[in-house]
Amino acid sequence: MLNGVKRKIPNNLPRFVSSDDFLNKKRKLVSKKKKQLKTVFFNSYEEVFDKFNIKDKTTLSFHHHLRNGDRVIQEVCKVIKNNKLNDLHFAPSSIFPSYTNMTELIKKGNITNIHTNYLNGEVAKVISEGKLKGKLIMNTHGGRARAIESGDLAIDVAFIACPTVDRSGNGSGAIGKNACGTLGYCVPDLEYAKKVVLITDNLVDKLDDYQLNGEYVDGVLVVDSIGEAKGIVSGTTEVTKDPIGLKIARDCSVLLSDLGLLKNNFSMQTGAGKTSLAVVNYIKEIMIKQDIKGGFASGGITKSYVEMLEANLFEKLYDVQCFDLEAVRSFKENINHIAMSASKYGNPFEKDIIAEKLDFVILGATEIDLDFNVNVTTDSSGYLIGGSGGHADIAKGAKVTIIISPLIKSRIPIIKEKVTTITTPGEDIDILITERGIAINPKRKDLIKKLKSSKIKVFDIKELLDKTHDITGVPANIKTDDKIIGYVEYRDGTYIDVLRKVHDDYIK
Amino acid sequence: MFRSLLFVPGNNPSMLQNADIFMSDAIIFDLEDSVNLDEKDNARNLVETYLLTTKELPKAVVLRINPVNSDLVDDDLKLLQTRKIDYLLLPKANKISLFVLDKILKKIENKIELKPTKVICLIEETKSVIDIYELAKHERVEALMLGAEDLTSELEINRTTEGKELLYSRSRIIYAAISNKLIPIDTPFTDIDNQDGLIQDCKNALNLGMKAKTAIHPSQLETINEIFSPSQKAIKWAEAVLKKAKELNKGAFQFEGKMIDRPVLEKAKKIIEKAKLFELM
Hints:
The structure holds two protein chains of two kinds. Chain A is α/β, with parallel strands linked by helices.
């Protein structure tokens, strides 16, 4: 049966209706785990497996705050292999290229089901090629928090890498040799997993300031190293020099200005790519020139935002994960650099979430279609290359959602008649900015009206598609495989699209 | 009329593909210095295909050909058959090279029934600076462009941000161009990452009388366009002056305490003409 974005979803599964449909539903909450009186200290990963009775079919969760520098998931995978456990369900908040030990376990059936918000690298490749025996569920950052608190994603054991832990089991990401800053994604795991173990390489007697409450912690494992903080650096700290990226960024800043979105107390979020950084720089220039002070910026926080906070251009930063080491430093030093949990960031059922307070967000797209549906999950041949992360959460929450992208990436047009995979529904996408023009979702008549007196040329998205085809020609249709390897789960728990195995003709 | 002209190497497909989106008043498709000898055919093919197949071409198309005394120029000029080229940029322009080019062009134009092709002279030799007034009088010539890299190399001097070393050549080009109703175009600023230097260099050229500047990277265009455009303040002044002139219907009058007469009215008209052309009002 077709869902609300006209994708065929198997009949026994919950179908996406619209991004507002959660308003018709009641929040489902299971009880938080019981608070512990005493924290147990373990000597090894093996002992954790033993004491927490980790066996076949157990669900294990992880966070990705150490990103490519994480060693915990690698070590857990080794124990699974040695213990010859099968049919495990993994629920890491994201999967990075450095998580190489997962690959073999997927191929051999030790890991058979995965819930995650984002994945790339070798794990993404093997799953794309149909090697995962069960299913992959790709949900959003806010949706993951919702799934955990509702019991839809029941976690048996949460492995939480934590840069510093005290003897009462309280944890902080702000300090320690592998400080990674905020620990926003693992808060639901901490509060709802049946068992929680913090893994640290920095044990202290007492933490006065902590993000993870030791009362929810069942055990602590002290290891030589949880990873390497340098690996957390995401994206780039350099502004793009690519003339196309600069043009898009410039046009974006002009558009924001013409829409009147840059005014005192405004709030915003962007990605961490080079073009996003260029947008942030242009916005910064306008703010300084026009003496504008923003209310807050949120999201994964980068050095650019830290500089703006320190220059008093923003009052506060709300941070779910630090994207670079400058953000880690700022989080430790600046009281206005505030941690938020994944739930507070984007859980549709949580009250006063940050996503809904955003005036505008600037996001990327791998593909966008004539209905403004966006794909950031797969490439055009179906290979998994990312995932929503917070994309669908903030696209829904923000007052204005802007996609910035060149029209052509690696000779492939980004505008399609229909995207390969829907990550974020078109109803939540308002504006597309490309190097050859801007398209506005026809449902945003207010924005179209505001831009009537602007010098910015607005095109129909179909006109932009035609312009692209004039350059590239019309690409051949991509073959799809019948085998369903997983689903894209919208933030409310419904299924917005299916994920299919890459067709044999495209397997690399 | 230009403010900015961007050099695009003819053998760079991604730059060609996006040539029309940059904020340049003209694109100079280069077949000369930025293209290696073994890439010349490739560059010609790419530029030809681009010109013949692209729906939205840049506002003005300029082709920098190889020197007329080289074996390459005949093949370069075959691109005129596309009928999409607005100007040829003649490198090492001097009396002889301009004479030779004119002769070749006349033959081609007769053969393929092409209207006379306009030429921009690239002044990059000391003797061209000396002979500039003669070049400026040639009927094909539409603009004079300073090429400071070759010129300072011949003079064995260094280029500076202050640009004192270019005062003489810039001034010669400006006077020769303006007195013959041509456009004086300034040399590119080659330190791409130095935005402050670019601003200073543009202002130096503008204050002497240059009307446009070449760019070697799209990131320079915004600055060049801004500096070589009339300011909003100037546009408002020009509008008010012309309005007042129309109301009073007098050749001379006072406006905001200053005397307005024919030269000032001409200046105001030029400002409005430029503002309209560059979509600033």
